[in-house]
Design goal:
The protein is α/β, with parallel strands linked by helices and 398 residues long.
Length: 398
């Protein structure tokens, strides 16, 4: 065989070998889940994780792939410390090179993380932190939120509770979630004829509510009209059982609050007939996404999905839909795709408002029913409060 033919034979063999070698796998889509897994909001973080993974599964029809790219979730724990929250988000964006981040659990952590998203020019999809300032005066263009904000909580509860002559005292935790919540509630009540006559703030780890409750009761004793104590609280350890034991009804005072996780709502059993508005309860929304979530969660875990499971699923679906719509994981492409984006969640339709990237969503007016066979107070639907009923303020400076 001549030298030229030998060279051709070697080239052909090399080409054949290359042709039969497996193609290089596409880079994975990397998503960071930043949550407060250590501390009093651990249950919230676990639910968000479960919901996120189920949302990614649902949105990718079980493949956990998008456009041939595997989805990889990298978890970070803030320990509910803002300085750690900043550091782990920077680590996720910088060292782990994630395409976007989801979280955190606490509003205090979220506020610390917002500038990091701006510095790295990467998306932070906030779920479930609630404080208005996240999509308000502390917001930047890299922040989107599937979680409801304080104004959505406040407006829906104002719709449920507010009417002329109602006098309200508030009890809230002394950090961004509690203070933003009360401020938004006061604003939302302005058009209803109801008014807040006393505000009480206590540390997040408070367990003895005797003194703050007494101050609230004393403040309400001196007013005329229907009297309501509205509680804004995060965490599994709640004040409701202790408040109920102090017999506020003897003073003509009703307790009211928003929704919470199922273990926390065990305390609601002491308050049958209590009203408020909630973000989610598994038996309320009627749509195919929630049907799948409820069925699969019951099958896999033996329990219904909880408050923040639905939120995590919404975030997972939103992330997949954004990448699919953008055809890319580049930040500017994602922002363009997500502004005004509508997507289906366990609560039905959500819409990322272009002005502040807050997800608009329906809420639910409830009344607590007690069933001896159910471990928690059941929030029975009074009515759905639609997106068009809630004039959620735009609070940023865009």
């Amino acid at each position: 065989m001549s030298l030229n033919w030998k060279r051709l034979a070697v080239a052909a063999a090399t080409a054949a070998a290359i042709g039969t070698a497996p193609a290089m796998a596409a880079d994975p889509i990397k998503i960071a889940l930043i949550s407060g897994k250590t501390g009093p909001l651990e249950a919230y973080a676990k639910q968000t994780h479960t919901g996120l993974m189920m949302g990614l599964e649902y949105a990718t029809q079980g493949t956990m792939e998008l456009d041939g790219r595997k989805i990889e979730v990298i978890e970070k724990d803030t320990q509910l410390k803002p300085e750690i929250a900043r550091a782990v988000l920077a680590e996720a964006y910088g060292d782990d090179e994630v395409d976007l981040a989801i979280g955190p659990t606490s509003s205090g952590d979220a506020l610390a993380m917002l500038p990091v998203a701006q510095e790295y020019e990467k998306i932070l999809l906030v779920e479930p932190a609630v404080a208005d300032s996240i999509t308000g005066d502390k917001w930047n263009r890299y922040i989107f939120r599937t979680g409801r904000n304080s104004s959505q909580d406040a407006i829906s509860n104002a719709v449920a509770l507010g009417k002329p002559g109602v006098k309200i005292a508030t009890l809230a935790q002394d950090y961004a979630f509690g203070r933003d919540g009360v401020a938004a509630f006061r604003e939302a009540l302005a058009s209803t004829g109801a008014e807040i006559v006393h505000e009480e703030y206590v540390p997040r780890d408070t367990t003895d509510f005797t003194a703050p409750a007494q101050r609230i009761f004393d403040a309400l004793d001196g007013v005329q009209g229907d009297k309501v104590l509205f509680v804004i609280w995060a965490g599994a350890s709640t004040p409701f059982a202790k408040l109920a034991a102090m017999e506020p009804e003897r003073r003509g005072i009703k307790i009211a609050t928003g929704g919470n996780i199922l273990p926390a709502m065990a305390a609601y059993k002491a308050l049958p007939g209590m009203e408020g508005a909630t973000y989610y309860y598994y038996d309320i929304p009627k749509n195919p996404v929630n049907d799948w979530l409820v069925t699969e969660h019951q099958k896999r875990f033996g329990t219904p999905p909880d408050f923040f499971t639905a939120g995590g699923m919404s975030a997972g679906i939103a992330a997949v839909e954004a990448i699919r719509k953008a055809g890319s994981t580049e930040t500017e492409d994602l922002i363009k795709a997500m502004e005004g984006m509508e997507f289906m969640s366990p609560k039905g339709k959500m819409i990322f408002r272009k002005e502040d990237h807050q997800a608009l969503q329906e809420m639910y007016h409830f009344k607590i029913k007690v069933d001896d066979n159910v471990a928690w107070g059941i929030p029975e639907l009074v009515r759905v409060i639609g997106i068009d009923e809630m004039n959620v303020p735009v609070r940023n400076k865009r």
